[in-house]
Design brief:
heterodimer; A: 242 residues; mainly alpha; MetI-like fold; flat; B: 220 residues; 9 helices
Chain lengths: 242, 220
């Protein structure tokens, strides 16, 4: 309820802001900020894909993998949860080239943030898979399914539903952490904010508008995840009806 | 040889000194976060919609926008209104405000878990709202949520490198300076990572210990 009113307020104020902005003297920095926002959206989307893949892989390996892979998953999760996102970003950006691996900044950004959020996501996956009732596992044994089959066809689809709300929070965290990529020279929204600030000195307007743009993107994520949650809950209810 | 041990040992004392600023920012930021969190949580419980709704909106707003921009906002925008903050103060304020909104959710959960009867008993005893909160509700609401607060302490600690963006001379900024003067980034940045990893693992172990102890107390 509160969330919905915040979302409505965000979208309304954002639109109103843009209309005001296009009439006022804001025209000199709005296009730059929107370009930056587009980069932010791209990094968030690509980072989310990387995060989900890493989380599912690491989460399942930690639970069911053979021990070398299990240890690898544990090391990955602890390493990325135990250090700062910014340190990870700088490490990939400054240190990897010393090993002869030079990646474009965008790739570094997506990889670092995706790996970071993925480590947190792995625990979400583990929690959700662990929360599937034991009877479901027993049923798959009774139906003579292999463990992979059981995971893929019975356990994961149910765990997926439980994962949606925590992933919504993680995607917001991901969106927020994309601001860090401005510190490795990527022209995202935070970077453009500083750049526009240095050229136009409209500090208060620029940073306020930037905060509202982030809020609007976060609102879109929240609404999208809510819709997904409802759809998944509906699918589950239908599944139980059989 | 990629990794130079002698250089690593040479910069270790410099980084250790910078880590004091990191720890200072963490502690000050967290104290602020606790205070603001409790204030937000209590205001959000208010029956008056004109208090509860704006506070709820503010909390959601701060939680949904990046800490880095909030740091810039405090550091660059406030001086326009005549309130100049030095970098460390702006950074600590931003950290405290940002994590205050997270702590508010934790406190809210703790406050919600206090049985209704406790409130009713306070009314029956004719306690003022202040005494109800101070002597009855808060002492019961806080202990169960200490582990969750501990997790946010660690999270806040891991966000302190962001202060390097406004040139606070904490660990990350020092590592960047070392890197740019000697063109050797591998040792400083790896050491900073190791420092955070070590502290986080120790902190996580401590939190688990506190959690176990609280569970024992709760079981009695």
């Amino acid at each position: 309820m509160v969330m919905r009113s915040v979302v409505v307020a965000a979208v309304v104020s954002f639109t109103a802001g843009l209309i005001v902005a296009s009439f006022a003297g804001f025209r000199e920095f709005i296009p730059g900020l929107l370009e930056g926002a587009w980069i932010t959206v791209q990094i968030t989307a690509a980072g989310a894909v990387v995060a989900v893949v890493c989380a599912v892989t690491a989460g399942l390996l930690k639970m069911y993998g053979p021990w070398p892979l299990r240890w690898l998953a544990v090391a990955y999760i602890e390493l990325f949860r135990g250090t700062s996102a910014l340190v990870q970003l700088f490490w990939l950006f400054f240190v990897l080239p010393l090993f002869g691996v030079t990646l474009p900044p965008m790739t570094v950004a997506i990889a670092a943030l995706g790996l970071n959020i993925g480590a947190y996501g792995a625990e979400v996956v583990r929690g959700a898979v662990g929360a599937v009732p034991r009877g479901q596992w027993e049923a798959t044994v009774a139906l003579n399914m292999t463990r992979t089959e059981a995971l893929r066809r019975v356990i994961l689809p149910q765990a997926f539903v439980a994962m949606i709300p925590p992933w919504g929070n993680l995607f917001i965290e991901l969106l927020k952490s994309t601001a860090l990529v401005s510190l490795i020279t990527i022209g995202d929204l935070a970077f453009r904010a500083q750049q526009m600030n240095q050229t136009t000195f409209r500090t208060a307007e620029i940073f306020s508008i930037v905060l509202v743009i982030y809020l609007a993107i976060a609102a879109v994520i929240t609404v999208g995840m809510k819709a997904l949650e409802q759809k998944a809950a509906g699918a589950m209810a239908r599944g139980r009806g059989h | 040889m990629l990794w130079d041990w002698s250089y690593a040992f040479e910069i270790l004392p410099v980084l250790a000194r910078a880590s004091l600023v990191t720890i200072q920012a963490t502690l000050m930021g967290f104290v602020l976060a606790l205070v603001l969190g409790l204030v937000f949580a209590i205001l959000r419980m208010s029956r008056a919609a004109w208090i509860a709704l704006p506070v709820a909106a503010l909390v959601e707003f701060i939680r949904s926008t990046p800490l880095l921009i909030q740091i810039f906002f405090l550091y660059f925008v406030f001086p326009e209104f005549g309130l100049s903050l030095d970098a460390l103060t702006a950074g600590v304020l931003a950290l405290g405000l940002h994590y205050g909104t997270y702590c508010a959710e934790v406190f809210r959960a703790g406050l919600d878990n206090v049985p209704r009867g406790q409130w009713e008993a306070s009314v029956a005893l004719n306690l003022s709202p202040y005494h109800t909160f101070r002597d009855i509700i808060i002492p019961q609401a806080i202990p169960p949520v200490v582990p969750a607060l501990g997790n946010y302490l660690v999270a806040l600690f891991k966000e302190t490198p962001l202060l390097s963006a406004i040139a606070v001379l904490e660990l990350m900024q020092q590592a960047k300076i070392l890197g740019s003067t000697t063109f050797r980034y591998i040792e400083p940045i790896t050491l900073v990572g190791a420092f955070f990893l070590l502290f986080s693992l120790v902190a996580a172990a401590l939190i688990r210990m506190v959690e176990r102890r609280l569970n024992r107390i709760g079981a009695r």
